[in-house]
Amino acid sequence: MRRNRYESLVADDEAAMTLALEALLKREHYSVDVVNNGQDALDYGLAENYDALVLDIMMPKLDGLQVLTALREQGVATPVLLLTAKSQIEDRVAGLTGGADDYLPSLDPREFVARVGRLTRA
Fold first, then answer.
1. Average pLDDT, 10 consecutive residues per value, the chain (122 residues)
2. Which helix (H) or strand (E) holds 44?
3. How far apart are alpha carbons 17 and 6 in whole angstroms?
4. Pick from 109, 49, 62: which is nearest to 83 by CA?
5. In sequence order, which residues have a C-beta less than 8 Å from that of residue 59 and are 6 or more positions away?
6. Cross-strand pairs, 30
7. Are 35 and 13 in contact, with CB atoms under 8 Å apart?
8. Long-range pairs for 23-31 at CB < 8 Å and ≥24 separation?
9. Which of 50, 51, 88, 109 is deepest in the core (most CB within 10 A)?
10. Which helix (H) or strand (E) holds 26?
């Protein structure tokens, strides 16, 4: 059995989405923590040493951009993928200029795994 290679955090308020993302990452031998709101994402992001963070933008308590801004202000340099239905160019620019390392406006399982893999590649 292969040992988990990377630690990741998935933050999304939709249970079906978090289950799908968690399954995809575990299949690739990631250890995965899952939270369903922005405040928990921020707390976990500050308390743990992850190799990658996957944040939805539209979450309760804090949105993904607020989480990203707070993490970057606290010096957390963990790679962040924003995975969201918000696909307008303004949204993508705001996410990338706000400190995200990547932005994915739709979920294709193969592309998602490839993008997270790129973020965690040493």
1. 75 95 95 97 96 96 96 96 88 92 93 94 64
2. helix 38-47
3. 20
4. 109
5. 11, 12, 13, 36, 37, 38, 41, 67
6. 6
7. no
8. 24/109, 24/112, 24/113, 25/113, 25/116, 28/113, 28/116, 28/117, 29/2, 29/3, 29/4, 29/5, 30/4, 30/5, 30/6, 30/116, 31/4, 31/6, 31/7
9. 50
10. helix 15-27
Q: What is the C-alpha to C-alpha distance for residues 112 and 122, in angstroms, rounded to an integer?
A: 18
Q: How far is Cα of residue 31 from the mean position of the Cα atoms in its chain?
A: 13
pTM of the model: 0.92
Buried b (16+ CB within 10 A) or exposed e, 10-25: bbbbeeebbebbbebb
